[in-house]
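Cast an eye over this sequence plus tokens and explain the fold to me:
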Amino acid sequence: MLTPDLNLLITLDAVLAEGSVARAATRLSLSPSAMSRALARLRETTGDPLLVRAGRGLVPTPRALELREQVAQLVQDAQALLRPAEKLNLSQLHHTFTLRTSDGFVENFGPSLIARISAEAPGVRLCFIPKLNKDSNFLRDGSVDLETGVIGDATSPEVRTRALFRDRFIGVVRSGHPLSQLEMTPEMYASGKHVLVSRRLHNKGPMADVLKPLGLERDIAITVGGFSAALALARASDLIATVPERHTGNLRAGMVSFALPFPTDGITVSMLWHPRMDADPAHRWLRTCVWEVCAGQDVVAC
């Protein structure tokens, strides 16, 4: 069965609304002959004459009367769908956005983001879920609206990204730690007991590659899956945690932070989303909120 020409719906709507081939032609800016040909196609497609001669005019058939309101509504709905999106009314927006992030991001940037969104769109809710890997399927299938993290080789090339902030790794110990009052050296750093953040077995972290040329190796006492857990352990023990500075600003309150005594590469934390959400007004607003909250967050100095 051939797919019908949906353009005929617009013609049918005009013909049924006007009850005249000439007036329908004027309405659609067509010549009378072009409208007559279109009416002939409609009659062939529907299997009904639709308009029949009655004296000097035309009258609709029962089938035409049956279709008139339904066709008018279909055309109105189609025109509404094809119009540009109306300006976003944040006060009337009711939606739940799902963000896939690390615990550290939620604890450090979450309060400011929640306050910003509550002030601008009281009907919007946020759902934070943990980011345990760089799999982009959650963005692709629509179960996640936005992600944050470091872009890597496993990040799908189809996703859109925008950098949120640059970060660097620092060392953190509890207040009163034996090393907290000393000038840190590579040897002193490596000699302490460390809590490592890694989700992969047998991974010694990026600091291992930096210390190896110096002939040094950290003593990894404990491995955890996130920065917040690492800092919680360091706060309650003599362990040294190595974490991103901006990403953990609030989490390090009351602890002693120090610059690493050797050069390390910085990292860029970005937000990621699927390209189908690019033009969505509500999603664009959410991205603006996240970017401005991260860009405006003060850095806690070491």
